[in-house]
Amino acid sequence: xxxxxxxxxxxxxxxxxxxxxxxxxxxxxxxxxxxxxxxxxxxxxxxxxxxxxxxxxxxxxxxxxxxxxxxxxxxxxxxxxxxxxxxxxxxxxxxxxxxxxxxxxxxxxxxxxxxxxxxxxxxxxxxxxxxxxxxxxxxxxxxxxxxxxxxxxxxxxxxxxxxxxxxxxxxxxxxxxxxxxx
Length: 182
Description:
Strand order of the largest sheet: 3-4-5
Number of strands: 5
Number of helices: 7
Largest sheet: 3 strands, antiparallel
Structural class: alpha+beta
CATH class of the largest domain: Mainly Alpha
């Protein structure tokens, strides 16, 4: 195949490599970013350039960081500048001469406990908003997590399996039961 027949072959190869390293199928990834499997095949073959939104979703979904995120954006050859999502989420800033520079960000690995949850659903996916009681009739936001419909279904299955294992196999990693209402 000539390069002119696959103008985005380098981008496609890189995305395919990232997908294969994460050990995910075309079906899983296309479902997660909500595009047709055939479209993802064409993107990985270099025949089609993903829209900027789809590339940002893929970068986020695979957890691509720093220089690799910038490299994917550059391989896509968009006319626009590097989006803020890549700059801020992936720790990429620009020096005064406009060249990308990488900043290291601290990651908070503490476990945040929640006693409240709001679930919002729209055509794009599901958002879980976890809260914690902060005082009389006050809720503090703990975390907000967005995901595709397919990923939300997988979260439900995983939670069900984990709770069943804990119940019947005596796993001690569960939170203690809430005894405030007893």
